[in-house]
Amino acid sequence: MYKFPEGLYADIRIERTEYAAYSVQNNEVRNNSEIPINGAMVRVYDGKMWYTSVTNDLDNIQQELDNLAAIAEPNPDILNDPAVKLYEVHKDKVLRLEGDIDNRRITRKQREDLVQGYIKECIDDSIPEIKQWYANYNQGHIIKEFYSSKGAEIVQDFQQCYIGIWYDFVVDGVPYSGGKSFCFMDFEKLKGHEKEVIEKRDRFLDYAKNAVDVTPGNYVCVLAPPVTGMFTHESFGHKSEADYMLNDKTLRDEWVMGKKVGSDLVSICDNGDMFPHRGYIAYDDEGSAPKETWLIKNGVLTGRLHDANSAAVLGEELTGNSRAQDFGCTPIVRMTNTYMDAGDTSPEDIIAGVKDGIYVYDVIYGTGQATFTMKPSMSYRIRDGKIAEPLRVNVLTGSVFETLFNIDAVGSDLEFCDISTCGKMGQSMPVSDAGPTIRVKSLNVN
Amino acid sequence: MTKEKITNQFSASMINIEENKFKSFSKDSRTEHSFRIYDGGYAGIQLIQGSIDEAEGFRQAEKNLELKRPYNFTPETGSRHRDKSEQKLSDKELMELAHQVLDYLNTHHSDFIFKGEVSAYGKTLSMSNDLGLDVSNTDYRTSAEFVFKHKDSKDLIDGWFSIGQRTFDFKKFTDMADNYLTNFTKTVDLPEELIIQSQYYGFLSKMYDTLDAENLALGTSLFSGKIGEKIFADSFTLTHDVTDKETWFTPFFDGEGVMLPDDKYTYIKNGVILSGYADKRIADKYGVPHTGSARMNMADIPNNGFLNFRIERSDKTVKELLDGRLTVVPVMAEGGGFNEKGEYITPVQTSLLCDGEHILGRLPEFTLKGNIFDMFGKDFIGVGSDDPVFDDKQILMRMQYSK
Question: Which homologous superfamily does the CATH classification assign to the domain defined by B2-182?
Answer without folding.
Answer: PmbA/TldD superfamily (3.30.2290.10)
